[in-house]
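Margin note: ligand = phosphoric acid mono(formamide)ester.
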Amino acid sequence: MTAPSLGKDLLGLEPLTAEQIRLILDTAEPFKEVSERAIKKVPALRGKTIVNLFFEASTRTRISFEFAEKRLSADTVNVAASGSSVQKGENLVDTARNLEAMRIDMVVMRHPSSGAAKFLAERIPSNVINGGDGTHEHPTQALLDMLTVRDRLNRIEGLKVCICGDILHSRVARSNIWGLLKLGAEVSVCGPQSLMPRGIEQLGVTVFRRIEEAIEWADVLNVLRLQLERMQAGYIPSVREYYRVFGVTLERLEKAPRDLLILHPGPMNRGVEIDSRVADGPHSVILHQVTNGVAVRMAVLYLLAGGQPGLAEAAKGSGREADE
Ligand code: CP
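Resulting structure:
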C-alpha cells in the first residue's frame, strides 16, 4: 500500500482524510526531538525558499513557522502587510507572483479573509499553507492541539472534547471540529447563542448552553479567546458578564467528575474566558501546545516539500552532522 500524501497545499482539515491527518501527527513525532538539541537544525529543507506572508497579527503561528523552517534549514523571508506594497494597493496575487518571480518554493499565509489561502493556492504553483484565513480554518493550530491531546491522553478516538467560547468567529474551532471528528473523537461546543454559528449541529457536534454541563461531559476543554476585535456591539452584555457565565474557573473545574485537560490556542484573555489559576494550573497544556506547534509545522513543511513520511526519522539525522 502506498503512503498517503498531502498534495500541493494545506488549506484546511475539512478536505483531508483521517489517514492524512494521522500522517502529519506521526511525522511530527520524530521532529519534536530536534528542538531539544543544542544545535536545532537538520538539513531536510536545505535549498528551499519559504515566504511567510502575514496580513494579520500573529505571535505563535508566525514565529513557530519561522522556527520550523529554520530548523529544517530552509531559507525564509517574512512579509507583513504593513511595510509592504500591499499598503500601496497591490493585490494578493500580484504580491505572490512577484515573490515567485524571485523563485520561491512555499508560501505560509495568514489573511483576514476566509478563503484567501485557497484563492492564492489556485493561482500560484508554490505550495501554500494556510496560517489562518478569516473565520474559516487554522489547520496547523488544530493539528498541534490534536498532537498535544494525543501526547497526554494517548488517543483521540473516543475522547470527549468540548470547544468553548466564541465559536462564531473562530477558525480554530472549525479546524478542530473537522480534525477531531475525522479521528473519531466526540466533539461539543459551548458558548452564548449569539456566538454560536447557526446550524453548527449539522457538522456533527453537540451544543451546550451552560459551561457547567460542558465541564461535566468533557475529557478535554479547548477554551477559545473572545475575539473582541471581530465583534460589533451586542454579542455579549460585557466581558465581566461573560466571565461570570462562561468563564472556565477553578471553582467550576473542581466540580468536574474527572480531571480535564485544558487547552487554549492563545492569545489568552485572562479573566475573560479563562481563570489564571486554570491557565497556569496542573491540567493546563497551553505551553505544551506551543512547543508542539514547531514539530507539527516542521512535519507539514517536510511533507509538502515531498518528504517521505517513513524517512522523517532519517531526515532529521542524529544531530551529530550539525555539530561537525
Ligand atoms: N494561536 C494563534 O494562532 O496565535 P497567533 O495569533 O499568535 O498566531
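The CA atoms of residues 162 and 324 lie 47 Å apart.
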